[in-house]
Amino acid sequence: MRRLICATMRSGDRRRKEVRPSLKEIADRATAEAERQAICLALHAARRNKSEAARLLRVDYKTLHLKIKHYGIEAGESRVS
């Protein structure tokens, strides 16, 4: 997490410059990870049945399908990592 929040870059004069993402970027990453985990949990609870997982998450089937593709969730992935 520390690398995610604060990365350092060295310049030619050996000074370090901190590169920090904005609060919005941090929140977007946290939201995406929470959403990915929720999808994995719902798919596990629904025994990989996407229609049932969509009902559990209260989203449209197509929305769930697109998010599964977006997050690269594999067909056999049933654990939350």
Name the poorly predicted regions.
Answer: 4-13
Percentage of helical residues?
Answer: 55-70%
In DSSP terms (H or I, runs of 4 or more residues), the helix count works out at 4
Order of helices and strands: HEEHHH
**Morphology call:** elongated
| Total beta strands | 2
Rg to the nearest angstrom?
18 Å
Strand content: 5-15%
Distance between the termini: 15 Å
Secondary-structure class? mainly alpha
With strands numbered from the N-terminus, the spatial order across the biggest sheet is 1-2
Rounded average pLDDT: 84
Largest sheet: number of strands, sense, barrel closure: 2 strands, antiparallel
Can you put this structure into words, describing what you see?
- 57% of the residues lie in helices and 10% in strands.
- It has 81 residues and is mostly helical.
- A two-stranded antiparallel sheet has the order 1-2.
- Strand 1 and strand 2 (16-19) form a beta hairpin.
- Helix 3 crosses helix 4.
Summary of the model, kept short:
Residues 4-13 have low confidence and may be disordered. The protein contains 4 helices and 2 strands; from the N terminus they run αββααα.
Core attributes:
mainly alpha, single chain, 4 helices, 10% strand, 81 residues, two-stranded antiparallel ribbon, elongated
Question: Which helices and strands appear, and what pairs or packs with what?
Answer:
Blueprint: H1 2-5, E1 7-10, E2 16-19, H2 23-45, H3 50-57, H4 61-71
Antiparallel strand pairs: 1-2
Helix pairs in contact: 2-3, 3-4
